[in-house]
Write a structure and sequence with these properties.
Shape of chain B: globular
Strand order of the largest sheet of chain A: 6-7-8-3-9-10
Largest interface: A-B, 37 and 25 residues
Radius of gyration of chain A: 24 Å
Oligomer: heterodimer
Helix content of chain A: 10-25%
CATH topology of chain B: MetI-like fold
Distance between the termini of chain A: 26 Å
Helix content of chain B: over 70%
Order of helices and strands of chain B: HHHHHHHHHHHH
Strand content of chain A: 25-35%
Structural class of chain B: mainly alpha
Structural class of chain A: alpha+beta
Distance between the termini of chain B: 42 Å
Number of domains of chain B: 1
Number of helices of chain B: 12
Number of helices of chain A: 8
């Protein structure tokens, strides 16, 4: 039995479904992220785990106990909010000790625990400071410490890094992951930032339009998206209409040029129109070495992105993006040049819609 | 060379005359109890008068009770409206503004009519009358108190703070007392000072409920002793200004002390 089980969860606000058919099992110590655009239902689902929203249907079970109808204060879930939510009238130590004080722990125990978690977040000397005396990153670390202090069964984080600047976001997310692994705490993390979800999680739940699109490891989600939405939402993607030429051999036609996919095209008839997707980084210039698929293209645009150079190319009426590592000793074609690009059979994914899975 | 704009300065000067000339006249008059002398005699007479001390003390105590009652009524109500019933905010706001629409004389006659006969004969006892006076003052204080608390709650992220406290195991009582009230300190003090200034000078309700309050005393003094009455006006104004000064001071101290994302 999983540590956290969400079974047939749905939530309807008025006439609007916010979450539908949500089923998920999270193992003890696992780090799961809900990833999706605004309004997809990820925060509502998290709030149902926390107890701030009651599901319209379904059950929430934590460690074998059905907590569906329990109020939030009786669930023992630690929550970290995007807006930090530190109590402005309390200093750092009082904020962290708040949950323990409510649990009526002895003063000595509270003091010891506060010191422990302050050490975990590396802010030992900040106990007497007030929230307004801390930076955003420090405030969020204190909020994390406060949630950890009560030793929650499940740690819930609702876009905790969204309000921070890019550099702090990266360092704090590494810190969150390190602490989570060290404490082995079951964690559910909500984000709309794919990089955050992919870098932090054991598994990612991709959501769209109040439903789960795909659940998988970051590797699976990125490399083997099962739906067009997942493929489009996670990473940059070329989506190109194609026609199946010979399904048994995985042959497709794009702009009268033949491509081959390694994917089995079971259930798809010859002549059927499909959508294929190819990640930009999986395409290279044929001059660097040919792979099974080769397309004749015209270079439309070249954008320098630092470590990567993004090239926009045209094959007939279709535009592709391709990424190549910035190598100062490699001569790139120029805008207007006609060259060949190449990619492997495995790079070509034939996508179906979520409803077809 | 930059020209100094004349017109705004003329307006400022006229405004100054409009507001301060009557005050200067009142101050001057209050210092002329003894012929051809500038003296504080009128102030001395007022401050040493037993009626001044008794009525001021009485109104001071009533003001404190009013502040406590208004705080306990308004804070949880506005908090709940912010948290759970935001669509009711215009209605609550309208109710608090009724005080401006219903004159105090109507309010006090309503109170007398309902509470002077059984089953709620509150006016038959001193405590009952004081209670009614405080309740009357609470309704007069509603607009100021509501606006202060509302502004205070808008300045903090009420919902997230409440949810953060809930996730840490706190019940409603703890949330209100340990999280919400302390963070409304400045807003509550500001509402309290306005209420205090209003109660100290209130005349209508206290007169018709026959309570020994400071407002009726001031009016009575005005009819019989003009110099002492003007001295009292200056004292009363000084008290109001002191309250406003305290509000400014506390409000300035609170700036920037609200953490979180902005």
């Amino acid at each position: 039995m999983a540590f956290l089980e969400l079974t047939n969860i749905s939530k309807v606000f008025g006439q609007t479904p916010a979450v539908q058919d949500f089923n998920l099992q999270v193992e003890k110590g696992e780090f799961v992220s809900f990833l999706g655009p605004s309004g997809c239902g990820k925060t509502t689902t998290l709030r149902m785990i926390a107890g701030f929203e009651l599901p319209t249907t379904g059950t929430v079970v934590v460690n074998g106990n059905d907590v569906t109808n329990k109020p939030p204060q009786k669930r023992n879930t630690g929550m970290v909010f995007q807006a930090y939510a530190l109590f402005p009238n309390m200093n750092v130590a009082e904020n962290i000790g708040f949950g323990l004080k409510i649990a009526r722990k002895p003063k000595d125990e509270i003091k010891k625990r506060v010191e422990e978690v302050l050490a975990i977040i590396k802010m030992e000397s900040f106990g007497n400071r007030y929230p307004y005396q801390l930076s955003g990153g420090q405030q969020q670390r204190v909020a994390l410490a406060r949630a950890l202090a009560i030793q929650p069964q499940v740690l819930l984080l609702d876009e905790p890094l969204s309000a921070l600047d890019a550099k702090i976001r990266v360092s704090l997310r590494q810190e969150i992951r390190a602490i989570q692994q060290k404490l082995g705490i079951t964690t559910v993390y909500v984000t709309h930032d794919q990089e955050e979800a992919l870098s932090l999680s054991d598994r990612v739940v991709v959501m769209n339009n109040s439903k789960i699109e795909q659940v998988g490891t970051p590797f699976e989600i990125y490399n083997f998206p099962k739906t067009e939405f997942t493929a489009q939402f996670v990473g940059t993607l070329n989506s190109i209409p194609a026609t199946v030429r010979h399904a048994a051999n995985g042959e497709l036609t794009v702009d009268s040029q033949t491509l081959v996919t390694a994917q089995k095209l079971a259930g798809i008839a010859d002549g059927e129109a499909v959508m294929i997707s190819i990640r930009p980084e999986r395409i290279s210039f044929a001059s660097e070495g040919r792979k099974p698929n080769v397309l004749n293209i015209k270079v439309e645009n070249i954008t320098f992105l630092g470590s990567i150079v993004r090239v926009q190319v045209r094959a007939g009426e279709h535009l592709f993006l391709m990424d190549t590592f910035n190598n100062p000793f490699l001569k790139l074609p120029e805008v207007g040049d006609k060259v060949e690009i190449t990619f492997s059979k495995e790079a070509v994914l034939v996508l179906r819609h979520a409803s077809q899975i | 060379m930059k020209r100094i704009p004349l017109f705004p300065w003329i307006l400022i000067f006229l405004g100054f005359l409009y507001f301060f000339l009557p005050l200067i006249g009142t101050l001057d008059f209050s210092l002329r109890l003894v012929k051809d002398q500038i003296t504080l005699e009128a102030y001395k007479n007022v401050v040493t008068s037993a009626r001044f001390q008794n009525t001021f003390t009485y109104s001071f105590i009533m003001a404190l009770w009013t502040i406590v009652a208004a705080t306990l009524l308004v804070t949880p109500t506005v908090y709940w409206v912010h948290l759970k019933l935001p669509h009711l905010r215009p209605i609550v706001e309208f109710i608090t503004l009724l005080t401006y629409v219903v004159p105090a004389i109507i309010l006090v006659f309503g109170l007398i009519r309902i509470y002077s006969r059984p089953p709620l004969s509150l006016l038959e006892s001193e405590i009952g009358s004081d209670f009614l006076l405080v309740m009357g003052y609470v309704s007069l204080a509603l607009p100021a108190m509501y606006r202060s608390v509302d502004a205070g709650l808008r300045a903090i992220d009420v919902r997230t703070l409440t949810e953060a406290a809930q996730s840490l195991g706190a019940g409603w009582r703890t949330i209100l007392l340990d999280v919400i009230f302390p963070n409304l300190r400045v807003a509550l003090l500001s509402g309290a000072f306005v209420t205090f200034a209003m109660v100290i000078g209130e005349f209508t309700i206290a007169t018709f409920l026959a309570r020994p309050a400071f407002g009726p005393y001031m009016a009575n003094l005005g009819q019989t002793r003009p110099y002492e009455s003007t001295a009292l006006t200056i004292i009363s104004l000084a008290l109001t200004w002191a309250c406003i000064g305290m509000m400014q001071l506390l409000g300035r101290g609170a700036q920037g002390q609200i953490a979180g994302t902005r």
